[in-house]
Specification:
mainly alpha, 66% helix
Length: 160
């Protein structure tokens, strides 16, 4: 014979188990959605950076060979070491992997790391600044400690 109150004794455990099962199902669904969104954002950032590096490389490649209608002589890159670095960067940035595997992600990270280093070397060789970094500082207000004081304008205080 079962007691009428047996269900009440396990009521809390039953609700806990039911809530746990529902929360697990909802969490799995939400985790997949958030993971996909996060992956798309990170992928966009990585390939946007690769595109920026590829664009700078294309501009430098165009400046290597003197064109017949060259508007300014100063725009031509004559330094053979810089030309070799530009060619190496161009080779590095060709055919990045578009797969979603661990190996492909690591390869993109390595390409970005080496590409950024090459661009930094070329900037120093050619005496150029990274315009994207300056734009980022203007948009976010964040600066490196090394950039503090560069182009700093003193604060003017007007007394009324």
């Amino acid at each position: 014979m079962t007691d009428f109150f047996d269900g009440l004794l396990t009521l809390e455990e039953d609700f806990y188990a039911e809530g746990h099962a529902l929360g697990l199902a909802d969490g799995e669904k939400a985790g997949r959605i958030e993971g996909r969104t996060f992956g798309l954002e990170k992928g966009f950032q990585k390939f946007s950076e690769l595109g920026r590096l590829q664009g700078r490389c294309s501009v430098w490649n165009a400046r290597i060979a003197p064109a017949t209608n060259s508007p300014a002589e100063g725009a031509i890159i004559t330094n053979t070491r810089a030309q070799k670095n530009i060619q190496a960067l161009s080779l590095l940035l060709t055919n990045p992997p578009f797969k979603n595997t661990e190996e492909a992600v690591e390869e993109v990270e390595e390409t970005l790391k080496h590409g950024r280093a090459k661009v930094k070397v070329l900037e120093r060789m050619l005496g150029e600044k990274d315009g994207a970094r300056e734009l980022e500082v203007q948009n976010t207000g964040e600066q490196n400690i090394e950039d503090l004081g560069k182009g700093h304008k003193p604060l003017l205080i007007y007394e009324a």
